[in-house]
């Protein structure tokens, strides 16, 4: 059973089944829209810049908030922010959400949609939606918690149970999750909100996740409230969802499921972060068919492939070495055509290598395709594109600072990616591979 505080909300900071300390007393508020916090609590103004969002203090954070003598590990809401700083740019965060959708191919997913929702709470919101198996009430609680992951197969991209939290909080402070799933012939709908705005502005010193569930009633052919604990528990969670989301009525909230045909998951990140100039970090307006990162100067390349990775289509097109059969990515309503970098190379060579540590072969043979991009050596782009389980981890990694126009593509499953999937753990095998790639680039040059 999930951890509940006095107001009936899920607390997501549990470790090894130990419940977190309880949250600051909610008095009798149930967090309904009409509740007013005591005058001793200073309501913080909204913060719209990601890199400044961690600067706040919780109410009475130095005082013990639990009358228990058990030692408990607590998770301060600031951790949601600090955990998300692993993503240095917004596209790596979007890629994490795409990974979850691609992993759903084993549950029947055929596509993922990336788009904007205009005027969602007064500004644009980011939509990520797949048509996979969806999540039942237990699974969505694991999704909202830290460290839960049942992705143990060699084909799954995700493995740490942390990507959803880091990615969504890097894109914006608030995310709504709508999921319809079927487990043991029981069809359910669940809605949850992970809201840094809610936690910050109410001064919480622990993490609350309001969440409600619904069961399909075959007699009425409709969904009815699932009372997991008590009516009050359900009302408290629903009240918080309506208070801290753009929806004012339960009906409006549930209408979002009309966009899900069959099973699947609909994720909406809203109150998207702004840059220091006050412009939205994600630019939906410059190109109605794409997503750009605002404020990034556009690079000039004379290669067909060497598009600026500030363009969402370009990044999404090379993100996967191979997609599951019949799986498609739609960005702003347009199909993203996979772009295989190796097909762009001239004078290609395939070089095979088996990493060895202390004289022992540590992995399967690694094959690297290396060649010149069209336009070399006058290009300012070069390096190795390293994939893990078909997912791009290190794009155009410059192991040497010359060899202009020389590009390599390889997949390395023996290395372990860092949890933001933008680098690899610096093991002995990694350093051996780095040295081999340096030699390979210089020899080819």
Automatic annotation (TrEMBL):
<keyword id="KW-0378">Hydrolase</keyword>
<dbReference type="GO" id="GO:0016887">
    <property type="term" value="F:ATP hydrolysis activity"/>
</dbReference>
<keyword id="KW-0539">Nucleus</keyword>
<keyword id="KW-0255">Endonuclease</keyword>
<keyword id="KW-0234">DNA repair</keyword>
<dbReference type="InterPro" id="IPR041006">
    <property type="entry name" value="Morc_S5"/>
</dbReference>
<dbReference type="GO" id="GO:0005634">
    <property type="term" value="C:nucleus"/>
</dbReference>
<dbReference type="GO" id="GO:0031047">
    <property type="term" value="P:regulatory ncRNA-mediated gene silencing"/>
</dbReference>
<dbReference type="InterPro" id="IPR036890">
    <property type="entry name" value="HATPase_C_sf"/>
</dbReference>
<keyword id="KW-0175">Coiled coil</keyword>
<keyword id="KW-0540">Nuclease</keyword>
<feature type="domain" description="Morc S5">
    <location>
        <begin position="314"/>
        <end position="445"/>
    </location>
</feature>
<comment type="similarity">
    <text>Belongs to the MORC ATPase protein family.</text>
</comment>
<keyword id="KW-0943">RNA-mediated gene silencing</keyword>
<dbReference type="GO" id="GO:0031349">
    <property type="term" value="P:positive regulation of defense response"/>
</dbReference>
<protein>
    <recommendedName>
        <fullName>Morc S5 domain-containing protein</fullName>
    </recommendedName>
</protein>
<dbReference type="GO" id="GO:0006281">
    <property type="term" value="P:DNA repair"/>
</dbReference>
<dbReference type="GO" id="GO:0004519">
    <property type="term" value="F:endonuclease activity"/>
</dbReference>
<dbReference type="Pfam" id="PF13589">
    <property type="entry name" value="HATPase_c_3"/>
</dbReference>
<dbReference type="InterPro" id="IPR045261">
    <property type="entry name" value="MORC_ATPase"/>
</dbReference>
<keyword id="KW-0227">DNA damage</keyword>
<dbReference type="Pfam" id="PF17942">
    <property type="entry name" value="Morc6_S5"/>
</dbReference>
